[in-house]
Amino acid sequence: MRFIAIAAVLLSFPLLMQLLRSDPRWRKWAYFGLGLLPFTVAAWNLDAGLVNWATWAGFAKGYVLTLEDTLALAIIMTHPRPKGAPPLIGWLYLFMVTVSLSIPGATMPMAASFYVFQLARVALVFAAVAKIAGDPKALMWLGLGLASAMTLEAGVCLYQRFHGAFRAAGTMSHPNQLGMMAHFVVLPLLGMILSGYRSKIMMLGIASGLVVIVLGASRATMGFLGTGMVLTMLLSLRRGATPKKMQMVGLAAAALVVATPFLLHSVGQRLAQQLESQSDYDERAAFERAAKMMWAEHPLGVGATNYVLVANTQGYSARAGVVWNSGSRAANVHNTYLLTAAELGWPGIIAYVLMLATSIVAGWRWSFASRRDPRGDITLGCTVALMMMALHSQYEWITVTYEVQYTIAIAMGIISGLTRQRKLEQRQARELRRAGLSQAELESVGSGQPVGAGQPVPVS
């Protein structure tokens, strides 16, 4: 069965290439799938392990290929323009280099190489999204894929709650994983709606995201996602208020108000559960002590995905006071930055922070460089999602899993693709200015905008 799965995933690439080249009508479904598949590849077994260490304690468990990877590569190969490397991808490559540098010194070098392979797949998704982001219709179908995925997750979470699960995880392995991914659906979709896309499906995706975080009962997700929604709406109005935008902000605010009692109820239940099992043991602090000791003694890192192995075999968990049970001793430190620093050392943590910071700065500059351009609201939603994830990562390690990294790559790819599109339009405007066009004709340049000259994109 394993070899059948490998053959199926590998053969999907030429099939997708043929479909996309033979009939342009398939393209919209490819963009839709790019947004949907990060949530479904694991649950629907749309992946294959070329090398599979299923019982490995690290977060990357082999050389795994998914349908999302072959779809992204097919989109890159069949989408002729724009050419060249997209903005920001160089920072992802730099981070990949630092992961590669951790391989020779790792206790299990092959396991460390799994993370390089995973990041290469994430780079494919980044490049594919950056390739299509300048096309407003492609961006619309990508958003519809994200919205449909979150609607599916809300349905699965409701089913799980009705069947006794207090914290619903949807199709993911843990509620915190789904909660982190919700950042990269709700906030970009909110940005699209504010930019002028008129889509009931996208609105449903936003509402479904609120259902997911209520049923997931993650206090950090509730706080950061709620803050992100408020911040996106306020900054969007700061960019420029219009009657339509005010209407959309009112609807989103109403959804938050309706969800608030349910959010507070979930928080209350979590607190009640914790009070029942309360003890003097602070596991999060113990994990952080172990990671800091590891980083101090291994400034170049212990190797990607080697944290759990090293923490146990070299005594860091014991010295830090981590209790001896399978759940605690097999867990990563609940802090992405400390996990990255412990595994990759100073080069890795510096590269990781630079990658996030440059993406956030690029999105922020785009959003406010041209306040009359509605696409700025899309980059704003993606940028706020990255900001909330960066803050949330101080309390969560789940951002290193490939499912979450797919959604991060989509947000970064949108910022990258729209940045490149804007540069192309500015270059075209300079050329037309030299050709002697009038100001009115110059202002018409920029057909890549999702709402054109103020015209919304209708979506059913």
From TrEMBL:
Gene Ontology CC entries for this record: membrane
Ranges of residues in domain O-antigen ligase-related: 207-353
Keywords: Ligase, Membrane, Transmembrane, Transmembrane helix
Localization per record: Membrane
Membrane topology: Multi-pass membrane protein
Chain segments annotated as transmembrane: 28-46, 88-107, 139-159, 180-197, 203-236, 248-267, 344-366, 404-420
GO molecular function: ligase activity
Pfam families listed in its UniProt record: Wzy_C (PF04932)
Chain intervals for the UniProt region annotation (Disordered): 435-460
InterPro entries, per database record: O-antigen_ligase-rel_domated (IPR007016), WaaL-like (IPR051533)
Protein name, entry field: O-antigen ligase family protein
